[in-house]
Automatic annotation (TrEMBL):
Signal peptide limits: none
Disulfide bonding pattern of the chain: C83-C87
TM region positions: 18-38
Matching SUPFAM superfamilies: Thioredoxin-like (SSF52833)
UniProt keyword Membrane, yes or no: yes
Name of the protein: Thioredoxin domain-containing protein
One Pfam family here: SCO1-SenC
Example GO molecular function: metal ion binding
Family membership noted in the UniProt record: Belongs to the SCO1/2 family.
Length: 210
């Protein structure tokens, strides 16, 4: 083999290695850029407060610990089944979110929906289950919860939800739903019913799930 051929082969090998190194560097920079952007985007949804863990009951009478869903982004709503105004459309919106998040492959895996009843006397497990079934809830990622008055009051207080029982047994309550990150931090509060921007909620959940 001539010296000229050896030089050509060596040169070709050098440039192959050179461009391979350049490609690796560019790819690494792109990956770091995406990671950095995701962290920056997540930081645009500031932590409002660290929430305490709580334990209530699901509609099948089994215990539910909020910390069991850590690692998932959660949307939490507070309702009572006899509510005739904001609660039904809010729960309908949760149903729409359930279907949209399923389509994205996130439901029950990266995100979860939590609906808490604060009407401990009326909303038995059976009553709450029937209510949940009206909205085609999927228990693999949407939890309807209840508990005794004392336990539920601890949860509503921690979330900053005011609940006032009226003389007719109905309730006045704070009309908010809450975004909770994977570590149990409250990150955002939304309205209820027509004030819920579902596209924004999904976008926020996707951001925090990354």
């Amino acid at each position: 083999m001539s010296g000229e051929t050896l030089d050509q082969n060596a040169g070709s090998s050098f440039w192959k290695r050179y461009w391979f190194i350049i490609a690796v560097v560019v790819l690494a920079a792109a990956i770091l850029g995406v990671i950095g952007y995701n962290k920056w985007k997540s930081s645009q949804i500031p932590v409002m407060k660290q929430l305490s863990d709580f334990s209530l009951e699901k509609v099948d009478n089994t215990p539910f610990h909020f910390s069991d869903t850590n690692g998932k982004v959660r949307l939490v709503a507070f309702i009572f089944t006899r509510c005739a105004d904001v609660c039904p459309p809010t729960t309908k919106n949760m149903q729409k979110l359930q279907e949209a998040l399923k389509a994205k492959g996130m439901f029950g895996k990266d995100v979860a929906l939590v609906t808490v009843s604060f009407d401990s006397e009326h909303d038995t497990a059976d009553v709450l289950r029937q209510y949940a079934e009206k909205f085609s809830y999927d228990p693999s990622g949407w939890y309807f919860l209840r508990g005794n008055e004392k336990d539920v009051a601890k949860v509503t207080k921690d979330f900053g939800v005011g609940v006032l029982k009226q003389d007719d047994g109905m309730y006045m309550h704070t009309m908010r739903t809450f975004l909770v990150d994977k570590d149990g931090n409250m990150r955002k509060a939304y309205g209820m019913a027509a004030e819920m921007n579902l596209d924004q909620i999904i976008s926020d959940m996707e951001t925090l799930a990354k």
